[in-house]
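WARN retry 2 of 3 for item q-0093 after timeout on previous attempt; input resubmitted unchanged.
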Amino acid sequence: MNIFEQMESNVRSYCRSFPDVFGKAKGSLLFAESGKSYIDFFAGAGALNYGHNNDFIKGKLIEYLESDGLSHGLDMHTSAKEAFLNKFSELILEPRNLSYKVQFCGPTGTNAVEAALKLARKVKGRSGIFSFMGAFHGMSLGSLSATSNLYHREAAAVDLSGVTFMPFPHGFMSTFDTIRYMEEVLTDDHSGIEKPAAIIFETIQAEGGLNEAPVAWMQGLRELCDRHDILLICDEIQVGCGRTGPFFSFERAGIVPDMVVLSKSISGYGLPMSIVLLKPELDVWKPAEHTGTFRGNQLAFIGATAALEYRELVHLEAEVNKKAEWVGQFLANEIAPISSEISIRGMGLLWGIDVSTSRHANISKEITSCCYELGLVIERVGRHDNVIKLMPPLTIPMEELQAGCAILKQAVQKCFEKHEAVQQHAMV
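OK item q-0093 returned
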């Protein structure tokens, strides 16, 4: 028994799929103590959009550390926070004509979701929230109440109330008018559902299985909220910071949410950081009404500022779009034809291989396990974990992106051929 099995809680998760001991990482590569290297199509669950140990960001962090800059500052005024706010305003908000105020929360995404839900309820004086089937918003009790995954919800061991789940326009609901359904729910005095303070949504349900919200649907959702005096909260924690191409994934719909929650790659280096962007008129907080000891991660501010500079320096959005086009074509031309039981969806550098209709149980797990054996780290998401999710660092070199996709094709082909051979043998 190793030290991890001996001392670490059973709650550990990713190490069960990727059991090596990792000691080093660079760019889009992970290096195990065994000497084996892996191409990373996981990117810290979306926290490493700029890759492992990005030289530009690392240089800024080292410079700050060597200058004895503050390592901890609560919510005091600091030079690191000032630099981030100025750069974020200059490069992200102003060019998009967004006038959000910024609330710094505790260090993880769930903290930002908790703050946004709490503020929405305070502003509107209503307790209800609408979320969507397939949603993932965090693991603390408030955000978990807006998360639909029953496996995670059952672990709470308490009632998770205050949230009503609405159909998301995907799968069997893709032809159902979910906007009209919500309109009827909100206007029918016998629906049994009270008007919520806010609706929280993801433009792409990443953990839910790469379920993409159509542009017209997002625009309809914005109009619905306006008609009924409901706040619209967009969860950009995993799909923001350039993952889909533009900095915000909601940009493609031309909408402006009332609040936006950001975490994961906002710090640029995998450092804990989360923020809520809120329209100025919603900033009704009283001093210290919502606090947190680690809402002032100074190193994260330095990393976040450097990441915004780096994004401009290397024209990252254009790079993502170029790689996205290649990945989309590869998946359509090389992966989808392997089996009629495969469907492909995604955008930017966030793609899914859906094998949920496969006759072969657990084939998604077999494929990702085979990928790992061949030197590729990749995870599964969605209902019953039947969607294989490609999420490499946005900075991945083209040759490593191609090499990782080649491993993926090899694994998919091998697993489907094995099952087909077994099935044919059983029929003889």
